[in-house]
Amino acid sequence: MAEKIQLSPSDATRLLEPGPLGLITSRFRSAENVMTAAWMMPISLDPPLIAVAIHPSRLTHEYVSKSEFFAVNIPTAELLAAAHRCGLESGRQGDKFARSRLTAVDAVALDLPLVGECVAHVECGVVGRTAFGDHDLFVGEPLAVVALDEAFNERWLVETDAGRVLHHLRADYYAGLGRAYRATLETDE
Ligand SMILES: Cc1cc2nc3c(=O)[nH]c(=O)nc-3n(C[C@H](O)[C@H](O)[C@H](O)COP(=O)(O)O)c2cc1C
Predict the structure, then answer these.
(1) Could you list the residue range(s) of the whole structural domain that residue 114 is in?
(2) Protein residue with least CA distance to atom 10, ligand 1
(3) How many angstroms does the Cα of residue 68 sit away from the middle of ligand 1?
(4) Is residue 155 part of a domain?
């Protein structure tokens, strides 16, 4: 049976390596929120660090700034409609977990909701924040990292439905990778 396995903080960099779409969950006091984010990346291996660009107008920006915690949850195509909705509506309009039929589950290390239906989760403490242009870049230190064994084993298992994470192309177009290639180096002999 498929199981969610706890990984090391450095696996957060591998989870974000191919640029998957994320659902950023946050909490401030008793209020919880979930927001779609495409602008995310690993930025350091030692220590492991990731970054996400969040516009100051987002409710998520307010919650992450005030709590100094957030989680990245990674959806597959099964959650396409919910992920799209969480990127169009603000938590100011109502409870996005309920409106998108997503299940809020307790995080492992932090007082945060995770999206239960997602195949991987990275819980982060904010260790830096810098404004670049119109977005602020929040730097997160991974404190707990979890992934479904059917979806991720040292790399995303993109050949399977469970491991085919979403990538944003533009507007309402998304994509999923379907094939992995393994590189070899030709020798001179
Ligand atoms: C596919 C997609 C990707 C998005 N990526 C980001 C992002 O990386 N950063 C950001 O600030 N907003 C991004 N957005 C916009 C926010 O998700 C959107 O403004 C959302 O309503 C904010 O929710 P909130 O106010 O509840 O935090 C994205 C939207 C979509 C549809």
Answers:
(1) 12-176
(2) 54
(3) 18
(4) yes
